[in-house]
């Protein structure tokens, strides 16, 4: 029943989330269909959404099919139907724009299109982790970000992959992992990040689930997982690339050209940039440094997460692929040059599934609120010409609070127990990693001798 309750609660939360964003939409519009109140209250009332903002500038108001006719200028401006997101997000944007004549229509249609994915996520998380799923279904991040951008479908694909591997244990590990690889690849075509989880998944398949004394490396299974993920990504992207290569390539170029500026909420802007204020080269030197340091540190964090997973495997007997996936996501969020507020939705499923102290979770949500609310009040204060010192301090609390806790979560995730052992399983004797379990394969802890 908890799955049903979680889904119903999620539905109520989504309604609140939509009403929050809809405060910026409706009423009188200009000739482009833009709500006149949007620019005047989007920051002061904290109802801004990328969905409403991108009604203009991406061909959505003209109902242009994405990527086919678009491109990007040398200074990074998208043209035609090009958008800055992978192809499935662009496709969802186009579908949401069909039948829309104003940004308010577009916001409503997009919300209706994405809401089922949030409900599915709530249901699957409850099936895996029980009442902890309410962190997703009723948490502040869903209110703040459900309809801020196009995140709900991509989160659903990642959670579906976790569900297939950990719950559907009547199927072989290889079959479950291949199905999960399809979900992760689809997620990659929405927002890229689920593609990161293919690596720990194939390591998990390679090492297997059987007792160590009976284990053989499943090289063929691991290769099949990799091939399935790659093949799915190619199959989804190839039609767009063939029909309009310039428009398809523009989304990649846009992200490559994006700089670590005041809108990115990253440690780079708030931590490293001030050090370049009075140096030769200044802003240009700072951006050059970030363009190198950011990807290098992201890759290093991935390698460290996989290695920590290997160490855990040696202790517990099962490779903690979901914990490693969560750690990789933490590394990405920590060091990527862009840390948009809505990325918190990516992290929430790991906080639901893995046994992380609730005190840390509450602290993270408070820091996240400093960004999700504070950054828009900061923009409003700057735009109004007011003294923005207080708002800036709030934003920095959010930036550094999140950054510190992401480091903590990075290490906790790899060693964390699942929230519900009976649903997600135990790993080896100590239950330190996520892996499926059934009654006939449960491994009892070793007997302790008396002192």
From TrEMBL:
One of the GO BP terms on file: GPI anchor biosynthetic process
Domain of life: Bacteria
A Pfam family hit: Mannosyl_trans
Transmembrane segments: 106-126, 154-173, 180-207, 219-242, 290-310, 316-335, 347-379, 399-416
GO MF terms, alphabetically ordered: alpha-1,4-mannosyltransferase activity; GPI mannosyltransferase activity
GO CC terms: membrane
Keyword line: Membrane, Transmembrane, Transmembrane helix
InterPro entries recorded: PIG-M, UCP010361
Protein name, as recorded: DUF2029 domain-containing protein
């Amino acid at each position: 029943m908890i799955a049903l309750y979680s889904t119903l609660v999620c539905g109520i939360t989504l309604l609140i989330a939509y009403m929050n964003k809809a405060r910026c939409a409706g009423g009188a519009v200009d000739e482009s269909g833009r709500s006149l109140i949007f620019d005047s209250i989007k920051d002061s009332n904290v109802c801004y959404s990328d969905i409403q903002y991108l009604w203009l500038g991406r061909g959505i108001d003209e109902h242009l099919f994405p990527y086919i006719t678009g491109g990007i200028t040398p200074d990074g401006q998208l043209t035609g139907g090009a958008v800055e997101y992978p192809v499935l997000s662009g496709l969802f944007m186009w579908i949401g724009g069909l039948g829309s004549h104003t940004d308010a229509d577009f916001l409503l249609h997009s919300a209706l299109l994405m809401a089922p994915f949030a409900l599915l996520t709530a249901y699957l998380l409850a099936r895996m982790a029980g009442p902890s799923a309410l962190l997703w279904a009723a948490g502040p991040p869903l209110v703040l970000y459900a309809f801020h951008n196009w995140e709900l479908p991509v989160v659903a694909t990642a959670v579906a992959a976790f569900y297939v591997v950990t719950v559907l244990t009547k199927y072989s590990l290889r079959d479950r992992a291949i199905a999960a690889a399809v979900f992760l690849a689809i997620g990659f075509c929405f927002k890229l990040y689920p593609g990161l989880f293919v690596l720990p998944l194939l390591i998990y398949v390679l090492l297997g689930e059987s007792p160590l004394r009976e284990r053989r490396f499943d090289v063929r299974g691991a290769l099949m997982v990799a091939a399935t993920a790659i093949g799915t990504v190619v199959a989804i992207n190839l039609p767009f690339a063939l029909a309009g290569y310039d428009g398809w390539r523009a989304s990649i170029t846009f992200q490559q050209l994006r700089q670590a500026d005041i809108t990115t909420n990253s440690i780079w802007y708030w931590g490293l940039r001030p050090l370049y204020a009075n140096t030769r080269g200044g802003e240009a030197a700072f951006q050059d440094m970030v363009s190198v340091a950011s990807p290098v540190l992201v890759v290093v964090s991935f390698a460290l997460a996989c290695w920590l997973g290997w160490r855990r495997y040696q202790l517990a007997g099962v490779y903690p692929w979901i914990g490693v996936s969560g750690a990789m996501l933490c590394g990405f969020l920590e060091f990527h040059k862009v840390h948009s507020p809505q990325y918190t939705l990516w992290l929430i499923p790991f906080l639901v599934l893995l046994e992380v102290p609730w005190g840390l979770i509450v602290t993270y949500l408070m820091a996240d609120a400093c960004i999700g609310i504070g950054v828009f009040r900061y923009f409003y204060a700057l735009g109004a010409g007011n003294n923005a010192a207080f708002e800036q301090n709030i934003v920095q609390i959010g930036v550094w609070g999140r950054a510190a806790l992401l480091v903590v979560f990075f290490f906790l995730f790899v060693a964390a127990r699942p929230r519900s052992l009976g649903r997600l399983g135990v790993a080896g004797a100590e239950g330190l990693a996520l892996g499926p379990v059934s009654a006939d394969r449960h491994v009892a802890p070793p007997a302790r001798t008396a002192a």
